[in-house]
Write a structure and sequence with these properties.
The complex is a heterodimer of chains A (824) and B (102).
Chain A lengths: L2 E6 L3 H13 L4 E7 L5 E2 L4 H5 L9 E3 L1 H6 L3 E4 L3 E5 L4 E4 L4 E3 L2 E4 L3 E3 L12 E2 L4 H13 L2 E5 L3 H12 L3 E6 L11 H13 L3 E4 L3 E6 L3 E6 L4 E3 L2 E4 L3 E3 L2 H5 L8 E3 L10 E3 L4 E3 L7 H15 L13 E3 L7 E5 L8 E7 L4 E8 L2 E8 L5 H10 L7 H4 L25 E3 L4 E2 H11 L4 H8 L9 H12 L19 H10 L5 H7 L11 H12 L13 H5 L2 E2 L5 E3 L10 H13 L4 E4 L5 E6 L4 H10 L12 E6 L13 H12 L8 E6 L13 E6 L2 E6 L11 E6 L2 H18 L6 H8 L1 H10 L1 H18 L3 H4 L3 H4 L6 E4 L4 E2 L8
Chain B lengths: L3 E6 L7 E7 L4 E5 L5 E5 L13 E3 L2 E3 L6 E3 L15 E2 L1 E4 L2 E5 L1
Antiparallel strand pairs in B: 1-10, 2-3, 3-4, 4-8, 5-6, 6-7, 9-10
Classes of the chains: A alpha/beta (824), B mainly beta (102).
Chain lengths: 824, 102
């Protein structure tokens, strides 16, 4: 017989855990879910839009009753559990029924704090927690005029904005002197207050409620200082408390919430707990991202995999009130060791405060322009040393190079039909609609459903902002994001395992790390192939079927299924014979387009797949090899004319470029890797937007890293200055190797440098000569196996099968047409 | 017409890969999964006609090389949330030889 799992609480945290559990171990348990409310699981985050009339309750349902049935789950909605009898292992419901369990998941959530003042039980006094509360509020707005919201925090302000929309006169009462004092500093709190006052909300600050008055129904609120206001509806939004009474009455250890360890287990080993009812390492969480992270870990243990750990979350806050852009995260109050950088533009209504400690960002408050919120949040979670770009930090990611798209930075002011994703033509309205109607919570889900940010990624920041503004608080952005849906391990953990356990093929990685699918997916396969090749050069064997088409056939696929062929021109230099060979090939194979590339090479565009091996053969015969213009690999090394001819040139940039390209060609990297060498500071080769840029100056070379000229233009960071060409090669090899060993697959050097910080790179490549030499030697060792021409290799008879049909048929009278030589 | 036409040995298709059968009415992609199941679809993604034969095969799906749509090999249907269907052909393997029905 299956073990019986009882879930108490039919809310978002509990059901997310069940979903994760079903993914891991669909048949392990007989599951029964108890829910006090009489519905399926709905998206509590969307109560504000339901109150605002933008959504119906139906649209907020995450799991309909059918879902429970389809997954073999017994749903007992509208049934309150009264008691847990741990000795007999049964739960007793309000209807007197007893249900036995082997394991239990407590997900009882939280309840609003109802101030224990006289009159708190009067009709018309409610919390803001359930759909029933929302219905009461809408009903009251149709019959009455005066609303009082007690509590000027996130929830209270959202309630106030919603009631205002229904035409009520709204007063917000707040105990502290400024709004949202736990999320905002005083200045931002005041700006928020002014904004809401201009929309008609009235505020009573520093007001302590003494009594709620009324006879049959609430009629007014009286404060300690004697003030009194009339009220037909009082919404108590003075915070929430973990709902722990059930656990406490069963003698499960509770403090402020139900106490759990890093596996989400309570002090009773049979009983787990997740969500807002939980207290973990002294913290209580009320935002969706930490709860979902808990759900993932808890499911891992319920499924008896037993390796995941929850170690707590840093949270950020986003207010879901239309027209207000507001973000806060981390510790923004600071202490005697921290420093604050403050920016204020009253005319634009913008205020920003960043708190730094020991060159690390500790907290941020943004008002009026929150586009960099997710970036600051990343810097905080990643523990990035920001000293290298501290001067520009306040001006945001755009200022340190990432100009991205358009000029729009404020999604709150954006019209619904404003285009957010310029690649796929997705508007803000499309994104908001998809988030709400499909119940999306993560950037990945939004990409999948709307295609926004799914191509070049330039609008990722805007999409994250819209997501945060729609679901509130921090969207899922865990420190350790799983590599893909096939595993719970992150990129870094997988790499670690490959190195530490000496795994040399895909099968042993997938087996050793409990991959959920037998042959992975298009996300993890190329990543694993790269990690294996990078970790074990000469040992790991390239897995051709785990390569994207371009890397498998060593050419770039085009929309009409043709391919492009780009021979390598070392340092951008070609002899007349090489040019003739390229021209002859273009003639012989009737190549539709011959184009100069941005990387100082020649592109033969529109070549048919069957022609590839033959055209390569002709080019090989002229001494030309693959330019890897298709790969996550070393691409080009651009050069200017340099000291050989140029009257300004200080160094031989062409020879330097050729030497660099001869050393690094054929190497596989996490993403494409481009270089350039200029011979003087005029920098005609545009070396300062390359992954590795070299600028010759009188008597030395300046080395630059982490530049990018594509989707997000980023100027390089200056790494150091060296004197000799030999040193340039050593530093280039060492930097490339560090990138190859540490960056995540598909991470360009620009975001990698921003993620780990330039200091990290300088320490290893510049300051520590021994480490640099080791990196350089590992790079050269790897190149022993990589520095060969894939075109020559793919012309062998067995490799040619890739490029020709296995059979050619005539459909009129289906017969096999005799194959030409070379095909099978 | 509906005839079985032999198109070649199973070994000529790589595991987790595909080969093309060229016809005068367009290519047919013949896929081989990791556990040696064989499927045949029109070699055109329902999205923008990308050559599915060039995509990455995983489980019983293929990811289109142009825009990464996933197509279910047994039905030709695009995997939700995308929508569309690539034409499917019957296929069988006898004595290590692959045949498709036209």
């Amino acid at each position: 017989m299956k073990e019986r799992l009882i879930v108490i609480g039919n809310g978002m945290a509990g059901m997310r855990t069940v979903e994760e559990l079903l993914k891991l171990a669909p048949d392990l348990y007989d599951i029964t879910v108890f829910g006090e409310e009489p519905h399926g699981n709905y998206n509590r985050i969307l109560l504000s839009p339901v109150l605002g009339g933008e959504l119906s309750f139906e649209e907020t349902l995450l799991h309909r009753p059918e879902w429970y049935a389809e997954n073999g789950i017994t749903l007992r909605s509208g049934t309150r559990v009264e008691k847990i009898d741990r000795r007999r292992r049964v739960v007793v419901a309000a209807d007197g029924s007893e249900t036995p369990y082997d394991r239990m998941l407590l997900a009882t959530g939280s309840r609003p704090v109802i101030l224990p003042v006289a009159g708190h039980g009067l009709p018309g006094v409610i919390g803001f927690r359930t759909i029933a509360d929302v219905e009461t509020m809408i009903d009251a707005s149709q019959r009455f005029h005066h609303a009082v919201v007690i509590g000027g925090g996130l929830l209270g302000l959202e309630a106030a904005a919603g009631l205002l929309k229904h035409g009520m006169k709204v007063r917000v009462v707040h105990l502290a002197e400024t709004l949202m004092e736990r999320q905002l500093d005083e200045t931002a709190g005041r700006m928020l207050q002014e904004n809401l006052e201009s929309r008609g909300v009235e505020f009573l600050m520093g007001a302590k409620t003494r009594e709620i008055i009324g006879r049959k129904r609430v009629q007014g609120v009286v404060f300690e200082d004697g003030r009194e206001v009339s009220a037909d509806l009082v919404v108590m939004a003075a915070g929430v408390r973990p709902e722990k009474e059930l656990a406490r009455s069963a003698d499960i250890h509770c403090d402020r919430g139900v106490v759990v360890d890093d596996t989400l287990q309570t002090f009773d080993p049979r009983i787990y707990a997740v969500g807002e009812c939980v207290q973990h390492r002294r913290a209580i969480y009320g935002l969706v991202a930490p709860l979902f992270e808990q759900a993932r870990v808890c499911a891992n243990h319920l499924a008896r995999l037993g390796f995941a750990r929850y170690t707590g979350s840093i949270t950020s806050t986003k207010l879901k009130v239309t027209g207000v852009d507001l973000f806060s995260a981390g510790d923004f109050t600071g202490n005697e060791h921290s420093e604050a950088i403050v920016f204020r533009d009253p005319a634009r209504g913008v205020y920003k405060k960043l708190v730094l400690e020991d060159d690390h960002l500790r907290g941020a408050v943004l008002y009026g322009d929150t586009v960099d919120g997710s970036w600051y949040f990343e810097l905080m979670r990643g523990g990035v040393d920001v000293s290298a770009f501290r001067d520009d930090l306040m001006f945001g990611r755009a200022h340190i190079g990432d100009t991205g798209h358009g000029g729009g930075t404020s999604t709150a002011e954006m019209a619904d039909d404003a285009q957010v994703c310029d690649c796929n033509g997705v508007s803000k309205g499309d994104i908001v609609k998809a988030i709400r109607s499909q119940g999306l919570f993560t950037l990945e889900e939004v990409k999948k459903h709307t295609k926004a940010a799914a191509s070049c990624g330039g609008c990722t920041g805007l999409v994250e902002q819209i997501l945060a503004a729609t679901v509130g608080g921090e969207y899922t952005h865990p420190d350790r994001k799983p590599l893909c849906a096939c595993t719970d391990f992150s990129h870094d953990e997988v790499r670690h395992a490959i190195r530490e356990q000496h795994l040399i093929d895909r099968e042993s990685v997938m087996k050793g790390l409990d991959w959920r699918s037998p042959d992975g997916c298009p996300t993890c396969r190329p990543a694993l192939n790269y990690y294996l090749l990078a970790a074990w050069p000469g040992e790991a064997v390239d897995d051709r079927q785990s390569r994207f088409v371009n890397e498998r056939v060593h050419a770039n696929i085009q929309k009409d299924r043709s391919y492009t062929v780009v021979p390598r021109l070392w340092g951008g230099v070609a002899t007349p014979d090489e040019l003739r060979a390229i021209a002859d090939a273009a003639d012989k194979y009737a190549v539709p387009l011959v184009k100069l590339t941005g990387g100082q090479r020649i592109d033969l565009v529109g070549v048919k797949k069957e022609q590839l091996p033959d055209i390569w053969g002709d080019l090989n015969n002229a001494g030309l090899v693959s330019g890897h213009a298709y790969g996550k690999a070393l691409r080009t090394v651009k050069t200017c004319i340099g000291a050989q001819f140029c009257r300004f040139g200080t160094q031989d940039s062409i020879q330097m470029g050729i030497d660099l390209e001869k050393m690094t060609w054929g190497s596989w990297t996490p993403h494409k890797f481009k270089m350039a060498v200029s011979a003087c500071p005029r920098n005609c080769a545009e070396a300062t937007i390359k992954d590795f840029g070299v600028v010759g100056i009188e008597g030395a070379w300046e080395l630059h890293v982490g530049g990018n000229g594509g989707t997000k233009v980023r100027v390089t960071d200056r790494l150091c200055r060296v004197e000799t060409a030999t040193e340039v090669l050593e530093y280039a090899g060492a930097f490339m190797q560090l990138y190859r060993e540490e960056a995540r697959y598909l991470e360009r050097t620009a975001p990698w440098v921003e993620r780990i910080g330039l200091t990290h790179i300088r320490t290893r490549v510049v300051d520590d000569a021994e480490r640099r030499r080791e990196l350089y030697e590992r790079f050269l060792e790897s190149q022993r196996y990589a520095r060969h021409d894939p075109w020559a290799a793919n012309r062998t008879p067995e490799q040619r099968l890739e490029f020709v049909p296995m059979q050619t048929l005539s459909m009129d009278a289906p017969t096999v047409i005799p194959a030409k030589a070379g095909s099978q | 017409m509906s005839e079985w036409i032999e198109v070649g040995p199973l070994e000529s298709i790589p595991q987790l890969g595909a080969r093309v059968v060229a016809t005068d009415q367009g290519d047919i992609a013949v896929f081989r999964t990791g556990d040696d199941q064989v499927f045949a679809l029109d070699d055109a993604c329902p999205h923008e006609g990308g050559p599915l034969s060039q995509g990455m095969v995983y489980g019983t799906r293929v990811a289109c090389p142009l825009h990464n749509w996933s197509i279910e090999l047994s039905t030709g249907e695009a995997v939700s949330p995308d929508e569309g269907c690539a034409g499917r052909h019957e296929v069988r393997v006898t004595n290590g030889r692959v045949a498709i029905r036209l």
